[in-house]
Design brief:
By secondary structure, the protein is an alpha+beta fold. It is 33% helix and 21% strand. The protein has 3 domains: 245 residues, FAD/NAD(P)-binding domain (3-Layer(bba) Sandwich); 81 residues, Elongation Factor Tu (Ef-tu), domain 3; 64 residues, Helicase, Ruva Protein, domain 3. It contains 14 helices and 19 strands. The chain is elongated and about 85 Å long. The structure holds flavin-adenine dinucleotide. Its cofactor is FAD.
Length: 411
């Protein structure tokens, strides 16, 4: 049997590895348009590659996928985060689970993850066809013909589409798969960037660029449906970012917002403290240093740079003494930091981590990843209408679906 796997990213590599290890008689062609494998894997997690999650309970893991969680159930049980962890360690890459339950190679080097596959493909004679850009796929009575840019056609019995989404296009995933898959009879759901930072209308976040918070709660204000997200957060030169922002961006991936119709958000930088308690603390601080300026005592509660912004945004003169601060003004400060009002006018251009949307899941068998429309055609990874939050969940979905497709093809 001859199998073509299109796309040498996380999903394609895991699919090829699974077939090679489980079914040595299958001829595997892994077609990658780049001159190397796993470009996105290597840069993932800031180059450290957050391979999977340390969360062991599958139900909890599945909650981390705003799209595709039900579909993933079977594949995730068969190749769970624990099994992925064990798989990489068994293939010579020691992993570690950090306090926030993100799993990385001990070396903190994503290249080690890709090297596992390169070594395995050499050992198992997987034919890795670099610089092979698949342009079109034709279904025949038996099998498929792959048309390639500047190369001869390739005939195979089965095809796995693992071309990724269309985020970080310079890594090779440029959304090529969508048209080809539609031509084979499948539906592609609407696509949108996900796991992105927010650009804000206000320019004051820029002055705080780099200032980060361990925990903040962000909520979309004034929406009928309430979206919230809690986690680490930071100001950037264009707006706001960090895991809490990414998770929120994922939940609202299909909401439209721009300069004309901005999205109102509020950020609570004291999510674990009630507003009354915060006000109490502000009053106590005020009373202990009446002759100091308010701006200089506020850093008891917030960063110094932020204290100045708070005063400016609330029109509190920077030289105003605590003694002159009224209770009403302190209440305004407490309300402000419990709900920093910002208007989101866009997504950080091209900086999203994943694409939400993809191959319509009802058209794919969740156990085998095989098309219900075009037998012999399989899917794996981000090309499917599956995406997760940050924390190793997107790679985990790619490993799990790649493994499921590989096991099914060999059978
Ligand atoms: C900056 C960044 C950091 C990330 N960090 C993490 C992280 O730490 N943890 C995590 O879980 N997720 C992370 N993600 C998301 C994760 O990397 C992806 O979801 C995952 O790599 C998707 O795997 P894939 O195999 O489906 O697609 P990809 O990894 O995108 O692979 C698709 C491959 O197909 C090839 N291809 C495309 N078109 C063709 C064609 N026509 N012919 C031949 N080949 C083709 C591409 O060149 C590419 O190599 C990150 C994403 C980004 C952008």
């Amino acid at each position: 049997m001859r199998v073509a796997i299109v796309g040498g990213g996380a999903a394609g590599m895991m699919c090829a590895a699974t077939i090679a290890e489980e079914y040595p008689d299958v001829d595997i062609f892994l077609l990658e348009k780049n001159a190397s494998l796993g470009k996105k894997v290597i840069i993932s997690g800031g180059g450290r590659c957050n391979v999977t999650t340390g969360i062991e309970d599958i139900a909890q893991v599945l909650e981390k996928y705003p799209r595709g969680n039900k579909f993933l159930q079977s594949a995730m049980h068969r190749f769970s985060p624990i099994m992925v962890y064990a798989w990489f360690e068994a293939h010579g890459v020691p992993l570690k689970c950090e306090d926030d339950l993100r799993v990385f190679p001990v070396s903190n080097n994503g290249k080690d993850i890709v090297a596992v596959f390169e070594d395995l493909f050499e050992e198992k004679n997987v034919q890795v066809l670099y610089k092979h850009n698949v342009q079109h796929i034709t279904k025949q009575d038996t099998g498929f013909v792959l048309s390639l840019k500047d190369q001869e056609d390739l005939e195979v019995d089965n095809v796995v589409m693992a071309l990724g989404g269309q985020a970080y296009r310079h890594t090779g995933s440029t959304g090529d798969g969508y048209d080809m898959i539609e031509q084979l009879g499948h539906t592609i759901t609407p696509l949108a960037p996900s796991l992105n930072s927010f650009l804000t209308k206000e320019s004051w976040p820029k002055t705080l660029s780099g200032l980060s918070f361990q925990k903040a709660t962000i909520f979309v204000y004034g929406q009928k449906k309430k979206y919230t997200s809690t986690g680490p957060f930071l100001f950037t030169h264009m707006g706001v970012s960090g895991p809490a922002v990414f998770a929120l961006s994922s939940r609202i991936a299909f909401l439209e917002y721009d300069k004309e119709t901005p999205l109102d958000i509020r950020i609570d930088i004291f999510p674990d403290m009630a507003e009354e308690k915060l006000l109490e603390q502000l009053q106590q601080t005020r009373e202990t240093s009446m002759q100091k300026t308010f701006k200089n005592t506020l850093p008891h509660l917030v960063a110094k740079s932020f204290a100045e912004t708070v005063c400016q945004e609330l029109n509190i003169p920077l030289d105003k003494k605590n003694a002159d601060m009224s209770k009403k003004e302190l209440s305004r400060v407490a309300a402000f930091v419990k709900g920093l009002p910002l208007q989101v006018i866009g997504r950080g251009a091209g900086d999203e981590f994943v694409t939400a949307g993809g191959v319509e899941l009802s058209e794919v068998d969740p156990k085998t990843m095989e098309s219900k429309i075009c037998p012999g055609l399989f899917f794996a990874g981000e090309i499917l209408d599956i995406d997760g939050y940050t924390g190793g969940f997107n790679l985990q979905a790619s490993w799990a679906t790649g493994n499921a497709a590989g096991l099914a093809i060999g059978k």
